[in-house]
Amino acid sequence: MTHDVLIVTRWVRYGHDRLYVKAADGTELGYRDNKSGVNHVVAGADGEAFQAALAAYWAGGGKPAPETAMAPAVPRMPRPVPGTLPPVVPVAPETLLPPEKPWTDLSLARPGAAARDRALAKRGEAPVKSLFARVLGVHTEERAWRIGADGEELVAAQLQRLGPAWKTLHAVPVGDHGSDIDHVIVGPGGVYTINTKNHPDASVWAGGNTVMVNGAKTMYVRNSRFEARRAADLLTARAG
Asked: Are 206 and 195 contacting, i.e. CB atoms less than 8 angstroms apart?
């Protein structure tokens, strides 16, 4: 399988640092784990095209590149003559610049991506326990994140009906502690944040400022308002 145009996107979150490679039509070829240096190519994908896309990304200044591609050769220092000072090596101006901060194209994030990654991380910590819990229907932290991701995907499908005048972002990271906003909608009516909750087969009651699940009060309304205020403050600080 070959692709004419490949897109490389860096993703840094929850202790992971990866480079995802996909075609212009959204077909995924795989990703590179920047911490381990291991490439994870999707079965059936063009491995050579995957490598070529990464090479082009690094050649264009993408970070982080492998050490062999990033580290410049260090010139040997001549031995100083006794009684003289060592030579002064000039430093190129660009080496004095602060390192470029990594950035992420938010429009490429898939619905429920953050929750799905956390579920996978929990499953990786205890794969056997997670499997038995899933078979027996036991409520675990892994299940909560997985069910949450399913809910975000369902809501995202409904948001597609808004039309071309609206732009929807999913799993938008906020702050440095792994928090994210499930959905951010931007359009003629302004900017809205949506906090998605998924309770399969539960009894849900909503009225005024109260949401109850199986007869128990939740903090969903309060948390959603806090999330909206936080997003408004961040956008105001950036956009004025």
From this structure: no
Q: Do residues 2 and 24 lie in contact, with contact meaning Cβ atoms separated by under 8 Å?
A: no
**How many C-beta atoms lie closer than 10 Å to residue 1's C-beta?**
10
The alpha carbons of the chain give a radius of gyration, in whole angstroms, of 24
Burial of 188 (0-12, 13-18, 19+ CB in 10 A): exposed
Burial class (CB in 10 A: 0-12, 13-18, 19+), 40: middle
Largest CA distance in the chain: 87
Percentages helix, strand, coil for the chain (3-state, rounded to 5) are 35, 25, 40
More confident residue, 167 or 25: 167
Residue-wise pLDDT for 80-136, tens only, equals 566 665 555 554 544 444 555 566 778 888 888 888 888 888 778 777 777 766 767
Query: Structure tokens of 48?
Result: 């050579």
Number of Cβ within 10 Å of residue 155's Cβ equals 20
| Angle 185-177-97 from CA coordinates, rounded to 5° | 95
Contact 99, 62 (CB under 8 A): no
Residues 23/7, Cβ–Cβ less than 8 Å: yes
How far is it, in rounded angstroms, from Cα 18 to Cα 49?
17
Q: In this structure, what DSSP letter does residue 238 have? A: H
- Of 147, 169, 151, 173, nearest to 160 by C-alpha is 169
Any idea which residue has 């199986």 for tokens? 214
